[in-house]
Amino acid sequence: xxxxxxxxxxxxxxxxxxxxxxxxxxxxxxxxxxxxxxxxxxxxxxxxxxxxxxxxxxxxxxxxxxxxxxxxxxxxxxxxxxxxxxxxxxxxxxxxxxxxxxxxxxxxxxxxxxxxxxxxxxxxxxxxxxxxxxxxxxxxxxxxxxxxxxxxxxxxxxxxxxxxxxxxxxxxxxxx
Length: 176
What we know:
This protein is mainly alpha-helical.
């Protein structure tokens, strides 16, 4: 006697369900009618005949059946499936359009950032030029002050201060 779980397509859970419904061996299953198997939870009208055929092969010692269900007959496309195909196509087109819009937005954002960086660089250059111009102006003022001081110091050293010049002129007039 062959155990029910040795039949291809029957696992532990289905084996327990078959055992609970009176199908203890593969031989019992091979002798069963498809209508009797439908009463077992997990077995429908399509699966029953496949399991019976698999049980017959398991009891005869032949190779086990690879598939317990008979092949599904090709079905015609319904209007709903055609509509869903159109919906899928529209969805794919919408996705492509969204990706394209996202790429364009990214490019605009990148261009805007580049323009902003260029503007900041230009502003920095202008500020640096203004600062260097101000520094030059300060240097020139400091130099002119220094020149005036050195000129006064030179005049004093030479004895040609303004006071001395006035005194000399006054003495000349007094002599005359």
